[in-house]
Amino acid sequence: MPESAAVNSMFGRIARRYDIANRLLSGGRDIAWRRRLTAVVLRGGPRDVLDLATGSGDVAFALGTAMPGARVVGADFCAPMLAEAERKKASAPGLHSNVSFQAADALALPFPSASFDAVTIAFGLRNLEDRARGLAEMRRVLRPGGRLHVLEFSQPEPWFRGIYLFYLRRVLPVLAGIVTGDRAAYVYLNESIEKFPGRAALAAEIRAAGFTGVSSKALTFGIVALHEGVA
Questions:
Q1: Cα dihedral 107, 109, 112, 113 in deg (nearest 10)
Q2: CB-CB neighbours of 148 under 10 Å
Q3: Residues contacting 72, CB < 8 A, separation 6+
Q4: Tens digits of per-residue pLDDT, 186-229?
């Protein structure tokens, strides 16, 4: 598992270039993945939503726009990333009035038990120092029947694996180094993706945290998966 302090420092270094790097390195697919997540959350009609590892706030803003009657809280433990989220919110006054941001460690959430109808975490679960503890915290802050939505990198379909690993190991760090000036951060990204469990193994971890009705959907040849579970 990655060390929290190292992850915090890494995201702090790349915060200002994070969004443009995401667009470039995913070929724009991150937008489609986020739309898919938002559509699934919307179906549940939640009133209170917590977006963990919110980063620069893209998922929180998408949820807030899709559900103007809901309260959306974006939480992250990296201050420079939260500053980016607040800057983006300030650039569109009134547009995201139902979205707020708060500093929070996913391993010890500063929210009462049973405070949210939905918890989302997009591309942040693999960065937790203790996934089991993080998942337990997510379940704790969900109301009974509330839903967890995990959008995360996964293991690709076998026919695509060779191509994907070449991109992760050889292409992505070079491009990221040019865009962000921090090649090392994206070497970590590559390594964290390669080590992360596939869909079945992650689903088992979510069940072990006490969630029921766990399901997963592969996206883009399996390189990303959307997992859901009920508290």
A1: -30
A2: 24
A3: 49, 51, 60, 63, 64, 98, 99, 100
A4: 677 778 888 889 999 999 999 999 999 999 999 999 999 999 99
**Closest to 82 (Cα-Cα) out of 51, 113, 110:** 51
> Which two tokens mark 31?
């937008």
Identify the pLDDT of residue 128.
93
Provide φ and ψ at 60, rounded to 5°. -60, -45
| Structural element, H or E, at residue 150 | strand 142-153
Q: At how many degrees (to 10) do helices 29-43 and 58-66 cross? A: 40
For 68, residues 6+ apart whose C-beta sits below 8 A from its C-beta are 98
pTM assigned to the model: 0.92
Structure tokens at 86: 């607040």
Contact 100, 73 (CB under 8 A): yes
Give the tokens for residue 29.
């697919």
Q: How distant is the alpha carbon of residue 211 from its chain centre? A: 18
Chain segment 137-178, per-residue pLDDT in tens? 999 999 999 999 999 999 999 999 999 889 888 887 787 777
In this structure, the number of other CB atoms found within 10 A of the CB of residue 86 comes to: 15
Question: Which residue is it, tokens 């009920």?
Answer: 230
Alpha helices in the chain (DSSP H): 4-14, 18-25, 29-43, 58-66, 79-90, 131-141, 158-166, 172-180, 183-195, 199-208
* Cα-based distances in Å from 192 to 22, 174, 202, 205: 16, 17, 14, 17
Structural domains of the chain ordered from first start: 4-156+197-230 (3.40.50.150)
